[in-house]
Amino acid sequence: MKPAARFSVVVVLFLESFPIMCRFGKKSGETYARAQVPAHSLRAGVQFPVGRVHRLLRKGSYAERVGASASVYLAAVLEYLTGEILQLAGNAAREDRKTRIVPHHLQLAIRNSEELNKLLGRVTIAQGGVLPNIQAVLLPKKTESHHKVQSKCSPVLLLTARPPRPTEGTAVTLTCETWLPPQQADVQLQFCFFRDDRALEPGWSRSPELQVSAVWSEDSVSYRCEAQAAGSTVGRSKPIQVQVQRVSVYNVSLETRPPGGHVVEGQKLVLVCLAAGGTGDVTFVWYKGALGLTLETKTQRSLTAEFELPAVKESDAEQYYCAADNGRGPCLSGLVSVTVAVPVSRPVLTVGTPGAHTVPGDVLQLRCEAPRGSPPILYRFYRGDVALGSSPAPSGGGASLNLSVTEEHSGNYSCEADNGLGAQRSEAVTLSVTVPAGDRKRLTLVIVEGLLSTLGLSTAALLFCCWLKRKVVSVVGGDEVYSLVYHLQQARPSAAGVSVYNVSLETRPPGGHVVEGQKLVLVCLAAGGTGDVTFVWYKGALGLTLETKTQRSLTAEFELPAVKESDAEQYYCAADNGRGPCLSGLVSVTVAGVPPKAFLLLKPPWTTAFENEKVTIVCNSPLPPVPGDVTWYDDESFLRKGSKEIQVKKSGSYRCRTSGSSLSDPVHVEFSSGELILRAPHPIFEGDNVTLKCQERSKKVTEKKVFYKDGQKLRREEVSASDSDAITLQSVSSDNGLYHCATPFRWWHALGLPESTSNRLRIQVQELFPLPVLTASPAQPVEGGPVTLTCETQLSPQRPDVRLRFRFFREKQPLGSGWSWSPELRILTVWREDSSYWCQAAIPVSRPVLTVGTPGARAVPGDVLQLHCEVPRGSPPILYRFYRGDVALGSSPAPSGGGASLNLSVTEEHSGNYSCEADNGLGAQRSEAVTLSVTVPVSRPVLTLAAPGTRAVVGDVVELHCEAQRGSPPILYRFYHEDIALGSSVALSGGGASFNLSLTKEYSGNYSCEAENGPGAQHSEAVTFNFTGGLVVSGL
Length: 1036
Description:
This protein is mainly β. It is built from ten helices and 76 strands. The protein folds into ten domains: about 1-15 and about 40-130, Histone, subunit A (Orthogonal Bundle), CATH 1.10.20; about 155-240, Sandwich (Immunoglobulin-like); about 250-340, Sandwich (Immunoglobulin-like); about 350-430, Immunoglobulins (Immunoglobulin-like), CATH 2.60.40.10; about 500-590, Immunoglobulin-like (Sandwich), CATH 2.60.40; about 595-675, Immunoglobulins (Immunoglobulin-like); about 675-765, Immunoglobulins (Immunoglobulin-like, Sandwich), CATH 2.60.40.10; about 775-840, Immunoglobulin-like (Sandwich); and more. Strands 70, 71, 73, 74, 75 and 76 form a six-stranded antiparallel beta sheet that branches. Strands 3, 4, 6, 7 and 8 form a five-stranded antiparallel beta sheet that branches. The radius of gyration is 47 Å and the shape is extended.
């Protein structure tokens, strides 16, 4: 038996040995090799177990030896052949308008396929029937033409996608590449593209390309294309899978409108959450307070979202932050503080006196206080409309004014409160000054002694209480007494339920110290409360919700079965029984073996570069170096292992991990193909001076660069501009935003072309250190025992030269010696009432730098001189003082940090040494002295001539003397005969200068001189010098 016939018999025997289920497939006439559809046999319900195939091969004795891989290979071939035959047989059944495959359909499928017929041509199919045979001349012409095209034009189709792994939001081009035989090059094909089994718009067309304008993650499916000629499909490509890449959201920031977060009560506040990059639908969440009260959630296909507070209240003065998430993990913004300025309410004036009556000689205290209003508040006191004085209240509250009473002080008194948002005047209070008559005091003492001896102490006390009651009722009106009683009643707990109070969080194991992989239990306890209590556990100071439980109990537990490195955080919980939540304090959990994060530095320190440039990234550890390789990551993908430095040439978010540190935060490096880029350094911390550099790929003749922040042009007088290509943001704090620069070419504008624009660069200012957390050791001290308070915070390891100072408070009272370099304070004895402690951490100011700016190279009287003082580093607010020598000139505050300036109108006396001093309460620092010389312009000089005698003859020497009465030395004098310069002389110490001239006949004429010391030259009047008769000189 021939090999082909033998293989056909094997195939038929195997097909008879397995149950086969049918399905409809491709049209008859398609070739075996070009009709591959993956997993057809699986969809048809056909299975070819390799073990059973192996047993049948050995049982059939088809060869002396059956290898282990033979059964695998034969099972795969049989599965593929079965799927193809069933698909063609299904097409034959469809054309026969049948829903079930019979042996005749198998006969038609095999005989009408050139390759299957060659393989199984000698196999007899039982009940296969006969093949239809129609002479070609009997077929209609249309059918003949159709079969001609179908038989001769069998194109090979290949679908490609560019790019093969697109990013969300970008375009993708699908190309259906076709190979036709040379003799069929004139056949006109139409193409259609399919997404899964759905045709894409515009359906059938002559173009072999289709551009999808934007793809998203849900478009990660299979695509295929088909071709048809004369209305009949002649080819189909294999399906391809397009994987759409999603980019994580990064560099999220929160901005406010109005900028700076300063808003007046009742005004509208808009919180704008921005992400520098990311794809897909982004969910934005706004939070209030460091504990993370959720305000609003929005999901949209945008990198910017807004949340509006239409009318802010005083309680909205808080810290806010936002989060953005596109399904690849949330990215948080920094905390932004919002201050709500409250206008003062109507103040209340109280007049206090030492006794029941005011008499001359008493000290009268006027106290004015506004119930509401943002500090600082300035109080002014009036008698009638005459101002008595004023007193500030920097921290709010009230203010007082003391007067020594005389007979003239009777009258109406009032006060006024003003915090810059509108002044309010109190109601008038009438004061009567009583002049004493005789021994009124002695008479009063006699009457009191008589009452005590006659009525007894108890009766006198009863009378005093009656008098006191009358006094109270006379001072406080009935409405006020009723209101006081009402509020006291409201303050009593209702019988319906008791609010949850004194909530605390404890850990098991105690102290929050746990080993990685160990179980951690967070126990939330309430000291009291009634009803069903809802417990919520939070992670981190920003308040990531972990778990919520509701139960009728004052204790609830949340369990972390196996802690990880990322669980080393601060935790707290909240309990609420419907009468308002009560929060626990923060509890720190430390995971043993978790090292601090590594950090990245760039060389050069720019996050933006041109294509084909290289950027070196250095991985540093905050701890001493440990031997071992550094692991590098690009986004979340492993990059390589090796040294602590790598060079990169493609855009990405890079991270690293060393042997002695955990995974660093990502740093995004962008390589631009544009002609203009904006560079910014990395990293940027609060208080840094940040230089933004606008750089061109190829230098052109340009005007000064123009810089923008959030689409708004930055004026150069608002920033420090070192040259035309760079600006410096001084002492950054709230400078987060999207920056770019542009190069306006003059000849571009002449042609009406737009300016050249750089990349958009997100500036994110990092906190130098987080908010401090106060901890106590022991956590629950014994009354009368000692306790150690620790103010915990962490400076960035990228600023090792910065030191912090600490201060501790009980209520509002500072403890210890004030500011200290130590973060700990030991209290020897604590009592039950000593429960409210807090701490501050701040950066002392560094040595300030004084700059003196003048309109020109020198200062002259009348110029406006600006003294600018600024510290490179220091926590705000900072107070700057300016000095000439040791004489104070004035002061200027910088509430948000940065520098401050003082303007002086220059006079002759302003020459000297200038310096400035910076103070933020942690110690003042003095700048180096800067010397200023004020140049007094010269006055108009006077020229005098001096000869040896009354007559001057040829050969005599004449002295020309020029002198200006005013002017700062040195002064340069020039001498002229007519308009010809004769010579010059310098007066180094002021005064005049002389020039000697030997006379000749040619020296008759007008003489003058000129004086100059810098600001401008002054010319004298002309003096005439004539020879008479050749010998006599006039004008001497």
